[in-house]
Every structure is written in C-alpha cells, then in structure tokens.
Design a protein that fits this description.
Helices cover 18% and strands 30% of the residues. It has 315 residues and is an alpha+beta fold. The longest helix has 15 residues.
C-alpha cells in the first residue's frame, strides 16, 4: 500500500479510513509475500488472503508427517541394502470404515452448528455501525460437525486405530548419521475424507560397535600394547569391516599415538571416496612386578641414567 503514491497519500491524510474502500487484493495485489518471507517456514500454498482473511484452502487437508528412528550396524552403512522397520501408525478403522459410529448406525448432523463445526456470534458496535463476528468451535460436536450416538467398539468413536505396519527401507551406501529417509504416503492419515496421508521420515542412527567409533566416513579403534612393545615395536592384528589387517607399530611409539589405515573406513555418501581407519595406541605400564621384572626394570633405569657417548653410538 505504501509503495503506491495514490494509496499512500490517502492513507497519510485519513489513516485506515482513507483505504476503507479498497479490497485486500487492491491493497496487497502485486506483492509476492512468498519472496519477502521465503525461508521463514510460512506456508503460502493457498495464498496469503486465504489465511489472512479467513478463506479456507480448497480440498481436503493433508495428514501429518511421522518420524521414527532406525538403528543399523556399521556393516549396513558400508554395504547398503534393505532393512525391515516396524511402524506404529493410525489407520482407518475397518469396522466402522472411519465413521466412528457403531456398525448399523450413522453419525448425525450436529443441530447446534448445522454441521459446520463452528458457532458464530454477531454483534453490532454502536460507534460506526461496525458488525463484529466471533467464530468459535462448536461445543456440542467439538468441531466435527456431526454427533455420534453409538460409538464403534473397535475405535471408540475416533474412526482410527493404531496398528503396527512392517515396511522395507532401502538404506543407501554410506548413509550419514542422522540422515532422514522419506517414504511418501506412510505418515498419519488425513483428518478429512479423501485427503492424502502425510509422509514417513526414517531417521538413521548408527548402532554402537565395541570395535569402532564412527566419525563421519572415518572409523577409530583403540588397541593396548605393553611398554616394551612400544619401545621395541610390534605387530598388531586390527579388525576392519572386511577382514583383520596386520599393522606394524614402529619402535619408540608414544602413548596415544595414532596410526592410519587408508581406505579402511566407511564409504562416503554419494561419492567414490572411502574413509580411513585410525588406530590409537594405548601403552600399558605394569602395575605389579615380580622379582625378576623388578630387577630388569632397575637395570634398565640404571642404563637410562648413564650419560650417552654419541661417538660410541656411531661405532
């Protein structure tokens, strides 16, 4: 309104009274509110006027979306494939076919609201002769527009029952932690007759694995070695997702040192690269020593305290 010179002038001189003769389309026509408020999760699917000026969207409403978590092992992340999932969801009651009424009976139209589900109260203000209407949910039928005298014994009048449905979910290779897989039409049923159900979103979680810790496409593994092996070097057999791998621990390895096994992690989602397997080396120091071990450690300590002769080391 303010972008139009004529409308702005009339508004500046007389306020809202100056634009009282304009329709909503006159005031807001040509303004793309979807562009202005895009990204703020406002739904402009039915037009701004439908929501701002009380106009209902045509057609039955869509059911709500449903979200459920699915926990899979690392092997499924690496290879992909099918997983079976049990989903509890509301379905139309087969006994009453969604009417909520006992078989052999039918719901009747609510007399209090004439089937609209709403009650309207009108009053006229003394000043200006303005007609004010207050619309509220009908208390007799609770907004349904119909009254059920005898409830269906299966669904207790709701017209829906909860049943467990088994679905097969296709897990893509390298699926990321927390990724949501969409299954169309497997959400909640529409609240309106003939409406489409919502969608099911399966949130994928990685199952805990005693061998590895996942970090994206990389895997981490810890292995324990003795202090003598850290000093002299050793060979470890490390688990991977395929088969165990031999890893050479070099002499002089320090506590918490990390060794990398290239390409032994998980495949990246949507890419050809494969992550790495990182081996963290934990050095164990013995807490109890027998007499022979103590003697050897004492001798070692004595050797370590002697000053070194670089020329002798070169010889």
């Amino acid at each position: 309104m303010l972008s139009d010179p004529k409308k702005r002038k009339e508004y500046d001189s007389a306020g809202f009274a100056g634009v009282a003769g304009f329709s909503p389309e006159d005031l807001f026509g040509g303004i793309n509110f979807g562009d202005i408020f895009g990204g703020l999760n406002f739904d402009f699917g039915g037009g701004l006027f439908n929501s701002a000026f009380g106009r209902r969207r045509r057609g039955p409403g869509r059911g709500s979306n449903l979200e459920i978590e699915l926990t899979i092992p690392l092997e499924r992340v690496a290879r992909g494939g099918e997983e079976r999932l049990r989903v509890p969801r509301l379905q139309v009651c087969t006994v009453c076919k969604g009417s909520g009424a006992k078989p052999g009976t039918q719901p009747r139209t609510c007399n209090a609201c004439n089937g609209t589900g709403r009650q309207t109260r009108s009053r006229r203000e003394d000043k200006g002769g303005v007609l004010v209407q207050q619309v509220s949910t009908c208390p007799a039928c609770r907004g349904r527009g119909r009254v059920i005298d005898q409830y269906c014994p299966e669904c207790s009048g709701s017209g829906e029952v909860e049943r467990e449905e088994t679905l097969t979910v296709n897990i893509p290779i390298g699926v990321e932690e927390g990724m949501a897989l969409r299954i169309p039409g497997r959400g909640m049923p529409s609240p309106d007759k003939g409406g489409h159900p919502g969608d099911l979103f399966v949130v994928v979680r990685t199952a805990a694995d005693p061998r590895f810790e996942r970090a994206g496409a990389d895997l981490w593994h810890e292995d324990l070695i003795q202090d003598a092996d850290a000093a002299l070097g050793t060979t470890l057999t490390v688990p991977t997702l395929e088969k165990p791998a031999k890893v050479n621990v070099p002499p002089g390895t320090q506590p918490n040192a990390v060794l990398r096994l290239r390409g032994k992690g998980l495949p990246e989602f949507g890419g050809a690269r494969r992550g790495d397997l990182y081996l963290r080396v934990i050095v164990e120091v013995p807490q109890q020593l027998n007499a022979e071990e103590r003697g050897l450690y004492e001798r070692l300590r004595g050797l370590q305290r002697k000053p070194r002769n670089p020329s002798a080391d070169r010889k």
